[in-house]
Amino acid sequence: RGFFGPNVNPETGVEFRGGKGNLYEGGLKIPFLVRWPGVVAANTVRDLVFYQPDLMATVADLTDTKAPEDTDGVSIAPTLLGADGSQELHEMMYW
Questions:
Q1: Are residues 15 and 45 in the same domain?
Q2: Among 76, 77, 81, 85, which residue's Cα sits nearest to residue 39?
Q3: DSSP code for 85
Q4: 8 — phi, psi (to 5°)?
Q5: Cα separation of 78 and 86, whole Å?
Q6: Residues 36-43: contacts with CB within 8 Å, 24+ apart?
Q7: Containing structural domain, residue 56
Q8: Does residue 94 form part of some domain?
Q9: How many Å is the Cα radius of gyration of the chain?
Q10: What DSSP character marks residue 15?
Q11: Predicted TM-score of the model (pTM)
Q12: Selected residue with higher pLDDT from 64 and 46
């Protein structure tokens, strides 16, 4: 189940099957909310697929530091800051 209700496909309104702890859409597709007035545009929606290791790389990028070399994360800062075209993507993702 989603945070305030069922985790639904925003395009169709149909609830994703599965939930936390499985590999169906309901267990993988969750909303990620960001609020940073004056930096991240309000009321925008992005469809970037990313996962938890990307958060460390993103925080490191935004604070002008370096994430450890042995992590698989990719900074999502370009997407957060509205420069989607320069966003590096994962070659593949796995769980």
A1: no
A2: 81
A3: G
A4: -115, 155
A5: 6
A6: 36/80, 39/81, 40/80, 40/81, 40/82, 41/82
A7: 36-85
A8: no
A9: 15
A10: B
A11: 0.72
A12: 64
76 and 45, same domain (yes or no):
yes
Summarize pLDDT for 7-61 with one digit per residue, the tens: 777 778 888 777 777 777 777 777 789 999 999 999 988 888 898 899 999 999 9
What would the two tokens of residue 90 be?
Answer: 């994962």
Classify residue 57: in a domain, yes or no: yes
Hey, is 13 helix, strand or coil? coil
Euclidean distance between the first and the last CA atom of the chain, given in angstroms as a whole number: 20
Predicted pLDDT at 36: 93
Cα dihedral 16, 3, 74, 82, rounded to 10, equals: 100
Q: The tokens of 66 are what? A: 């370096």
- Domain shared by 42 and 24, yes or no: no
